[in-house]
Design a protein that fits this description.
Blueprint: E1 4-5, H1 6-13, E2 16-18, E3 26-27, E4 31-32, E5 43-45, H2 58-63, E6 68-71, E7 79-81, H3 85-97, E8 103-108, H4 113-124, E9 130-132, H5 142-147, E10 156-160, H6 168-175, E11 180-183, H7 191-194, H8 198-205, H9 207-210, E12 217-221, H10 225-228, E13 237-242, E14 249-256, E15 262-268, E16 271-276, H11 284-297, H12 302-311, E17 321-324, E18 330-333, H13 340-354, E19 359-363, H14 373-386, E20 391-395, H15 399-409, E21 415-419, H16 422-432, E22 438-442, H17 450-457
Parallel strand pairs: 4-5, 5-6, 6-7, 8-10, 8-11, 9-10, 11-12, 12-13, 13-14, 18-22, 19-20, 19-22, 20-21
Antiparallel strand pairs: 1-3, 2-7, 14-15, 15-16, 17-18
Helix pairs in contact: 4-11, 4-12, 11-12, 13-14, 14-15, 16-17
Domain Mur ligase central: 108-295
Main location: cytoplasm
Enzyme class: ligase
Length: 461
């Protein structure tokens, strides 16, 4: 955050000052929407959610060091009152970017955004000052919060951009116009809200490359036909990445070790180098190539890129997060979110990791799958059976029951159980687990199966 007085911020966002003793007080630190994450010298943005009203926490935020509260009504402590806090945060972020000059990298896709963002940040920060999206703060609130962490020293600004519906990426790219736009893939995440088909998802994701200037770079996944369909939608220079031979940044000689970690030869226009990832799953090759493509467009050499990828570690919780228990049970927590593409990748990664060990899948619903939801859950049930998982625990009513029925009717020997809720999953899994098991846990975030993964991973008493 570049230092700004409360008066300056008020002019930028169109706010009126309430209970402010010193309009020249300087805001020197980033903003937060969670009062527990307030940084001394920053702003607390009081947003109203489904269950929590941030205005109720305004006094506590000031006590924790916030200079003022960005609010939609007076709160009895220093406040900048605006009509819409979310819009005001966006205006403030846009203003900041007009006064600093980082290379802005926007990335989107149906799956893999957060892992790719984490890999890319670890490559770039070895080279220069880098600010990247925290966790998965990739929406109309999260993006401004990320931008407001940048300052005059920031060289690279890596912005994960989520799209729940058409128009979302247009809005985000207006707040933070990217010089580099990366599209990972087109899948069924949010398909219900985008129109019901993959072409609709592609239309929404392509808003990112449409926002690029002619001197920018559009980095497109050569292995995804829907992404390749975006070639004609951008003025920017195009750089293809993927496992296809037509990709300028590609992988050769992909191999998996006994811990399900992929290694491959990274080929770029500047040469080649060996990459050995410390992440599980063959799908991570595509995420690593995406990060490598961005770094290539920014002028990094292949050796620098490979070194960064080789040193990178998992940063975000709930994404193929592995915990080894003292009794030899391995918990694979992939419960941050779920759609068919990520569910397939996670199941295969867990099975590869297990090798000959007994495998247990604890699976809940995948949200926003529109009219095809039941069929897609049944497909996952068949995949569990075909991969020869030993046990399936399907959590919840509705679509998870279709998953269970499909697994059972596949006659592949999987023991199928159903439970009503997360608490039931914890109880049942605790009784079923045997030393040496590999347990894979996944569902959409609203199901809350992360609590199950954490409970199973807890140290033994």
């Amino acid at each position: 955050m570049i230092p700004m007085t409360l008066n300056e911020i008020a002019r930028v966002v169109g706010a009126s000052l309430h209970d402010v003793r010193d309009p020249q007080a300087l805001v020197t630190a980033p903003s937060a929407v969670d009062s527990r994450e307030v940084v001394p010298g920053g702003l607390f943005a009081a947003t109203v959610g489904a269950n929590v009203d941030g205005h109720d926490y305004a006094a506590g935020a000031i006590a924790s060091g916030a200079i003022a509260v960005l609010a939609s009504r007076p709160v009895g402590v220093p406040a900048l009152v605006v009509e819409d806090v979310q819009i005001a945060l966006g205006l403030l972020a846009k203003h900041l970017l007009e006064h600093i000059s980082p290379a802005v990298i926007g990335l989107t896709g149906s799956v893999g955004k957060t892992t790719t963002k984490d890999l890319l940040a670890q490559v770039l920060e070895r080279h220069a000052a880098t600010v990247a999206t925290d966790r998965s703060f990739n929406n109309e609130l999260g993006l401004p919060l990320t931008v407001l962490r940048a300052d005059a020293t920031t060289r690279y600004l890596v912005l994960e951009m989520g799209a729940g519906q058409k128009g979302d990426l247009t809005y985000l790219t207006e707040l933070a116009p990217p010089q580099v736009g990366l599209v990972l893939n087109v899948g069924t995440a949010h398909v219900e809200r985008m129109g019901g088909g993959l072409a609709d998802v592609a239309e929404a994701k392509g808003e990112l490359v449409e926002a690029l200037a002619a001197d920018g770079f559009a980095l497109l996944n050569a292995d995804d036909p829907y992404v390749m369909g975006m070639v004609g939608r951008t003025r920017a220079r195009i750089l293809l990445y993927g496992r296809s031979v037509k990709a300028a940044v590609r992988a050769e000689d992909v191999r998996m070790d006994d811990r399900a970690r992929p290694a491959f030869g990274l080929v770029t226009p500047s040469g080649s180098a060996r990459v050995e990832l410390d992440l599980i799953g063959e799908h991570q090759v595509s995420n690593a190539l995406a990060a490598a493509a961005v770094a290539t467009a920014l002028g990094l050499g292949v050796a620098e890129i490979a070194d960064g990828l080789n040193a990178a570690r998992r940063r975000s919780a709930g994404r193929l997060e592995i915990v080894e228990r003292s009794d030899g049970i391995t918990i694979v927590n992939d419960a941050y979110n779920a759609n068919p593409e990520s569910m397939r990748a996670g199941l295969r990664a867990a099975k590869t990791l297990a090798g000959t060990r007994r495998t247990v899948a604890v699976l809940g619903a995948m949200g926003q799958q529109a009219d095809a939801s039941r069929a897609r859950h049944a497909e996952m049930g068949r995949l569990v059976a075909n991969l020869r998982f030993d046990v399936l625990i399907a959590v919840g009513a509705g679509d998870p029951l279709a998953m269970a029925e499909a697994a059972e009717s596949s006659n592949q020997g999987v023991a199928v159980h159903t439970v009503e809720d997360v608490a039931g999953a914890i109880r049942l899994a605790t009784t079923l687990l045997e030393p040496g098991d590999v347990v894979f846990v996944k569902a959409s975030s609203e199901i809350g199966l992360g609590a199950c993964a954490r409970a199973l991973a807890a140290p033994l008493s």
